[in-house]
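User: I'm new to structure prediction. If I give you an amino acid sequence, what do you actually give back? Let's try with this one:
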Amino acid sequence: MSGASRSEGKAGVKVPGHVKWLILLTSFSSIGYGYLTTVISAYLPEVGVSSGQVGLIIGVSGLAMIISAIPFGLMSDRIGRKRLLLVGLAALPLSMFICSLSTSPDVFMLAGIISGVAEGAILSTWNAMIADKTTVDNREMAFSISFIINGAFSGLGLAMPFAFPFLEDLGGWTSGQVHSWAFVLLGFVTAISPITVNRLLRDHEDKVPSGGLRRGSFLKERSKRTLLRFSINNTLIGLGAGLIIPLISTWFYLRYGIPDSFSGPLLALSSLSIAVAAIFSPRLAQRLGQVKAIVLTQGLSTLFMVAIPFVPGAALAGAVYLVRSALMNMAGPIMDSYLMGIVDKDDRGLASAINSIVWRVPNSATTIIGGVLLASGYYALPFVLASGIYITAVIAFWFNFRDVKVYAEAPA
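Assistant: Good question. You get back a string of structure tokens that encode the predicted 3D arrangement of the chain. For your 412 residues, that looks like this:
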């Protein structure tokens, strides 16, 4: 695509209305994911679950996603995306109801497995479905809207524990009762997504991509080469992030004694900062180019990452974490759009699954390691190790993709 046509498309970019509705309706599930994240990483340590067990629960959930994502990705590309997306959205309410029963690590392990499978189904279809319904010119904007809406809804779930002390005083309930009832409520809230998305897509007909059910290689040759190089960056980012990011609430509790009623809102602000940052992603990508924008935002975020354990006090550490989150995740919609533009359109579902897996496999493994490090009292080491790995990932991404452009394609 020429520079002139590209600029003209960006100037008049418009995301289709049905894509906006799809993003909005699926986002009710993000509220449940946000609350589940806070409870596992911050509330469970408060009721006596060790940080090692917390890391294991998160790791097993990631493993469930890993095992399910590849077959889901193949199904997404070969038989269509609609039914698979609905299955993933419908599984999450079950996790919510299970978590309402007990704070036992075994119960949360089961719920984590179910939510991991649900995540595998959603990740194998979501990016591909947005890419199928957009063009090169409006795709970044669509992914940015997705990040903004999902970040805001996830922030609602993350912030819920902030209101719990007030509710406990108001009704004379225990913390355990309020946490449990919140899961019941969110079981119904997350069920809104599969019901409404099913209605939105009632006239949608999945089409088997060109080439049908290919035999032999699962991926076309150009997709193979692209994913191999892209996986280097994503593997390293997942490796570094797993050491501390899923455990950040646990770190605040162990380091400063902060419960989930405070760390939850911090994570909510982090989600909102991600949403705000995503507003500027398309403009940044347009001005610098996608690859330079990704390298710049990920590189700057690493500087704030390594500073978190060394700044004085929980408030300043939280502020630095917010800046780090905004910068790191500003690259998110750009990377999603970029990947969908440099792989073959018939491989988008499997590419999304592989992209998620190569991030989640090392992430799940190092989350367990991070939990052990925190349990042993090493509060700064996970940040230092993660930052070193991030720098390596950013450098590798620049050298692998500085000359790779998105493919020209016909309008959706």
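You can read the tokens as a compact description of the fold. Here is one thing that stands out. The CA atoms of residues 274 and 326 lie 5 Å apart.
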